[in-house]
Design a protein that fits this description.
This protein is α+β, with helices and mostly antiparallel strands. It folds into two domains: about 1-55 and about 260-410, no CATH class; about 65-225, no CATH class. It has 15 helices and 14 strands. Strands 2-3-8-5-7-6 form a six-stranded mixed β-barrel, surrounded by four helices. A two-stranded antiparallel sheet has the order 11-14. Strands 12-13 form a two-stranded antiparallel ribbon. Helix 2 (about 20-60) runs antiparallel to helix 11 (about 255-295), helix 2 (about 20-60) packs antiparallel against helix 14 (about 375-400) and helix 13 runs antiparallel to helix 14. It starts with a helix and ends with a helix.
């Protein structure tokens, strides 16, 4: 059996060499399809990774902890009273924890005003969970000296510039009037629609002085290490068990629309691959079938000298498999270096993006990176092999059951 299979492989290689022009056309077509499929998959993975990174590392963190019902009501007095307990629980799983405070006020600058959400943070702890501080458009990040950082669209709406004094007016926790001037230290690049349109960020110390709020926090954002989907769900569940009386939610639960968009976008990748390979299946079917018709006499001679139908059938499949492997290997060899380069040298789309584009409210940078993973290469390659072999079944079956007498009469 092994000897017969080896004979079929050798014969297939010789046949490919004898018809090198047709072979080169098929190898080139397969290489082009594989290249397009792999590169498209890498671009899609890059877009998804960039969007998730912006959602998680620029704003929410992987997991958030709140007092019960805070997310539904946003009650200023619903707070996590013992944030240190959350810090200790998070550290058990290698996560950093950043406290956040939220309040609402009126912001005014010159003749312009807007209702804003004021966010108080601990800058050093926030940097362990998110990369928001590195997303400045201009100016400097929050410090402890009564300075604030504004969302991108809010700054434009107020006409704010670095160094301007911003008036904040609101109600303090003790019922008194909260009002003070804060110097604009920085303006953010587009991050999320919520931050861009109406967020003022200051230090937690300034927040507590302004709102007269000595203790407690509204939110604990956890991060500091990469969590895949499985780890995220597992650690969220374990933290919920360790923190009774508090609400623990992952970013996927906090942003279900974004999570569904990312999942559906990844699913659309397979739809696109199927469309590409459906076209390739027709091309391969046509190429192999034409090759069979051109070699009817040859197959008739094979059958006449005693080669069984299964051997002829396998011969056509082996030829198709070899050509597909050659084309696939060539496509991978071209695509992978380009993908690796695209991880550090993205496609610049700034000329096409007058303003920030968003997916489910999360800003997308106008630089399209690629992302190389094992699945990006293996899935299109393996699917191409399957499609090619399936497309070759009919021509192979036709060749296998050619009648020698009729084949030898063929011109």
């Amino acid at each position: 059996m092994n000897g017969r299979l080896l004979f079929i492989v050798r014969l297939a290689v010789k046949n490919i060499g004898r018809r090198y022009q047709r072979s080169l056309i098929m190898v080139g077509a397969v290489a082009f399809a594989i290249f397009i499929a792999i590169y498209y998959a890498a671009l899609t993975e890059g877009l998804l990774a960039n969007t998730e990174r912006n959602a998680v590392l620029m704003e929410s963190g992987y997991i958030q902890v709140h007092a019960p019902a805070y997310l539904e009501e946003h009650d200023f007095y619903q707070m996590v009273s013992d944030p240190d307990r959350v810090v200790r629980a998070a550290a058990t799983y290698g996560l950093a924890a950043a406290p956040r405070l939220f309040g609402f006020s009126l912001a005014a600058l010159g003749d312009n005003s807007a209702g804003v959400e004021v966010r108080g943070i601990e800058p050093s702890l926030e940097d362990q969970v998110t990369r928001l501080s590195a997303h400045l458009l201009e100016g400097a990040w929050v410090d402890q000296r009564q300075g604030v950082v504004l969302g991108n669209r809010l700054a434009r709406k107020l006409g704010a510039k670095i160094g301007d004094k911003l008036l904040l007016l609101g109600q303090a926790a003790d019922g008194s009037m909260a009002n003070d001037l804060f110097r604009v230290r920085g303006i953010l690049k587009p991050v999320t629609s919520e931050i861009d349109q109406g967020t003022v960020i200051m230090s937690a110390a300034d927040f507590r002085r302004f709102f007269v709020l000595p203790t407690g926090v509204h939110e604990m954002a956890l991060g500091g290490r990469n969590l895949d989907r499985k780890s995220l769900a597992s650690i969220s569940a374990k933290l919920a068990g360790r923190l009774p009386g508090l609400e623990v939610k992952s970013w996927r639960e906090l942003s279900p629309v974004l999570a569904r968009v990312l999942d559906s976008t990844k699913g659309s990748l397979f739809v696109m691959l199927l469309l590409i390979y459906a076209a390739m299946a027709i091309l391969i079917l046509n190429a192999v079938l034409m090759g069979v018709f051109e070699r009817i006499r040859e197959f008739g001679v094979m059958r006449a000298v005693g080669l069984p139908p299964i051997a002829v059938f396998l011969l056509v499949l082996v030829e198709t498999a070899i050509l597909t492997l050659l084309g696939g290997g060539l496509g991978v060899a071209v695509a992978v270096p380009l993908i690796i380069r695209g991880e550090t040298h993205p496609i610049d789309l700034t000329a096409l993006a007058a303003d920030a584009s968003t997916i489910a409210g999360v800003a997308i940078d106008p630089f399209w990176y690629t992302r190389l993973t094992w699945e990006v290469v293996s899935v299109p390659f393996e699917l191409m092999i399957v499609v090619a072999l399936v497309a070759a079944l009919y021509p192979a079956g036709h060749a296998a059951f050619i009648k020698p007498v009729e084949a030898l009469k063929n011109d």
